[in-house]
């Protein structure tokens, strides 16, 4: 403490000496004589006569190498404690002016530069004015920040300015970089990181299953009981955990890899648990209640306003939660808002992972955001008789088709009583980002495990074997429903999206198992999740769902299926031709003896017969 007082006295004496010179010469000029400043710093101090602010800027810009920047939220920096300290924060460019000319007298000659005024905003919506910058020093960065609303990491320091017409804290920018990994934003100390990294190492070594580990922590900390008797909720919980591992876009950029879920059920059935889980697992999250005033096009999307003089940007809920989740209650309440284009906005996010600004600029904004929708049937809320599914949910079919997981929890009074009394303790885990200061340690732990895994395993491949197996299972399901395909108005339009859903689920599974490669067993599990969506679609179209939809199909069984398909397509076929077709479809290199064994097995089952040596046909 005494050392700090001595330092303050020394600083006061120095500033006092500067102050005596101040009447004879400009303060910035005096300080400039003692330091070699670049043109940008010259410009930044040229309009200042606050000695402390001047010294802060000059001292900070003298050596920008090897600075250790502290990660903060902007709400923390408006105090003297952080003045002159290297800080960083993640956020957006709130405002950037058009370039304007500034003139400086340097080395007895006049120079003119292009400058910009800016303000930045962090992820919590706190804004800070930026000390103007010179274009030539930030050309590449300015290209990035003028192209739309993107999460960016800003590096610099806070400058305290006390002048008659300029009082407050401003940000001195040193550099701009891409957004920090979400795991860093959690601000976890080294001791806890070591603990969490040890868990991830165990998961990667196969000692624990990461999704099961996460589920145990959620069940324990939320205080869930009786989950064994609530099968649908347990499955929804499993999918919500998997959903948190989805990320990015498809390799070709055609669609968002983020998973979307729809949970339907009567009040007091435990749907809120799933929403709480989604919020707990995702670093970037937002919960939208049906009555929220923010639920307007601008509130959801944000906007980019381009006017003469500059660009003002404001991120919306969906962009702010990019790489996370937005949880929505009661779709019908939001969709009926006046002048709502809620369905169009949601459709674009779910399919493409982006939104389009509604202003005249039509700027495309990133929104790689999972959508979790928790809704009641109107008939259950209003106590009316069941109507058609469309009238009962008020969700358009183009939105329904984009959900990767749909589960419809039936009305069950005994289970509702059981859940109300035994399952939920009414704990509120967390709300929106403004409640981040009260996030529990176990929530931080789970977020770190999820985010760190996603950062390491972010390019997932479906090899030829897995793709062939996926295709075969899907074809087998479609063959079982061939008699309905011509009359399926809803399901027919969903086939492409069902295939995309399966691929998205598979990628999230591989990530959650800390692998860059999808396995065949993932395909079987993905079909089990798909079963719940298909069961919901049965209410809209005739549809047969085999009991073994998620059962693994062995290689011999798959070869038999291909043989039967090939024989059904031709009246007769040679074994050699079948070998070629099987190798091509299964992406394997079987020999003729393997196929002959398969043919013998099928003959014993009376499914095929040999009409002459090496030539086969149907037994019928």
Structure keywords:
620 residues, alpha/beta, OB fold (Dihydrolipoamide Acetyltransferase, E2P), Arc Repressor Mutant, subunit A, 9-stranded mixed β-sheet, 5-stranded parallel β-sheet, 25 helices, 44% helix, 19% strand
Put simply, the count of helices is 25
Main β sheet profile: 9 strands, mixed
Mean pLDDT: 84
Alpha carbon gyration radius:
31 Å
Estimate what percentage of residues fall within beta strands: 15-25%
Stretches where pLDDT is under 50 for at least 5 consecutive residues are 16-25, 424-429
Number of extended strands: 19
Oligomer designation: single chain
Anisotropy-based shape = elongated
Whole-Å distance between the termini?
Answer: 97 Å
Structural class, from helix and strand content? alpha/beta
Instruction: Tell me roughly what share of residues is in helical segments.
Output: 40-55%
């Amino acid at each position: 403490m005494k050392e700090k007082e001595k330092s303050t006295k020394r600083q006061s004496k120095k500033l006092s000496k500067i102050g005596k010179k101040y009447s004879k010469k400009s303060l910035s000029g005096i300080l400039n004589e003692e330091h070699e400043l670049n043109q940008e710093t010259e410009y930044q101090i040229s309009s200042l006569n606050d000695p402390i602010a001047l010294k802060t800027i000059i001292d900070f810009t003298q050596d920008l190498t090897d600075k250790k920047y502290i990660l903060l939220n902007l709400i923390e920096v408006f105090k003297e404690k952080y003045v002159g300290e290297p800080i960083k924060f993640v956020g957006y460019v709130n405002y950037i002016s058009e370039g304007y000319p500034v003139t400086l007298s340097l080395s007895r000659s006049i120079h003119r530069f292009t400058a910009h005024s800016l303000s930045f905003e962090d992820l919590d919506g706190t804004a800070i004015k930026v000390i103007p910058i010179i274009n030539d020093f930030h050309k590449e960065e300015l290209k990035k920040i003028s192209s739309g609303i993107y999460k960016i990491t800003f590096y610099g320091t806070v400058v305290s300015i006390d002048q008659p017409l300029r009082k407050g804290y401003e940000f001195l920018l040193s550099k701009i970089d891409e957004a920090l990994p979400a795991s860093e934003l959690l601000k976890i100390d080294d001791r806890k990181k070591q603990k969490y990294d040890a868990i991830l190492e165990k998961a990667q070594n196969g000692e624990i299953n990461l999704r099961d580990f996460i589920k145990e922590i959620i069940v324990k900390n939320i205080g869930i009981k009786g989950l064994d008797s609530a099968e649908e909720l347990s499955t929804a919980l499993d999918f919500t955990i998997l959903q948190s591992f989805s990320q990015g876009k498809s390799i070709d950029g055609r669609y968002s890899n983020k998973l979307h879920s729809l949970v339907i059920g009567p009040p007091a059935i435990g749907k809120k648990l799933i929403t709480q889980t989604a919020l707990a697992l995702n670093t970037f999250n937002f919960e939208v209640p049906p009555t929220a005033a923010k639920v307007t096009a601008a509130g959801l999307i944000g906007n980019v306003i381009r006017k003469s003089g500059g660009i003002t940007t404001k991120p919306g809920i969906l962009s702010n939660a990019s790489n996370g989740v937005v949880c929505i209650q009661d779709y019908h309440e939001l969709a009926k808002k006046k002048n709502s284009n809620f369905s169009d906005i949601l459709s674009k996010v779910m399919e493409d992972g982006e939104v389009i600004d509604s202003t005249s600029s039509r700027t495309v904004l990133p929104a790689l955001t999972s959508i979790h929708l928790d809704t009641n049937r109107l008939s259950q809320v209003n106590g009316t008789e069941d109507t058609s599914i469309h009238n009962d949910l008020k969700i358009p079919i183009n939105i329904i088709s984009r959900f990767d997981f749909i589960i419809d929890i039936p009305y069950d009074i005994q289970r509702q009583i059981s859940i109300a009394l035994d399952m939920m303790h009414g704990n509120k885990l967390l709300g929106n980002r403004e409640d981040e200061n009260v996030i529990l340690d176990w929530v931080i732990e789970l977020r770190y495990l999820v985010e760190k895994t996603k950062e390491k395993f972010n390019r997932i491949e479906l090899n030829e074997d897995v793709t062939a197996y996926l295709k075969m299972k899907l074809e087998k399901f479609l063959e079982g429903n061939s008699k309905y395909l011509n009359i399926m108005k809803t399901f027919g339009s969903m086939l492409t999206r069902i295939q995309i859903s399966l691929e998205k689920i598979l990628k999230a599974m591989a990530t959650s198992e800390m692998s860059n490669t999808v396995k065949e067993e993932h395909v079987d599990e993905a079909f089990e999740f798909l079963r719940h969506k298909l069961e919901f679609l049965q209410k809209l179209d005739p549809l047969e769902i085999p009991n073994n939809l998620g059962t693994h199909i062995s290689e011999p069984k798959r070869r038999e299926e291909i043989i039967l398909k090939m024989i059904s397509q031709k009246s007769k076929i040679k074994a050699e031709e079948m070998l070629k077709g099987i190798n091509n479809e299964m992406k394997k290199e079987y020999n003729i003896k393997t196929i002959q064994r398969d043919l013998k097995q099928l003959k014993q089952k009376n499914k095929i017969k040999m009409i002459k040596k090496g030539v086969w046909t149907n037994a019928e």
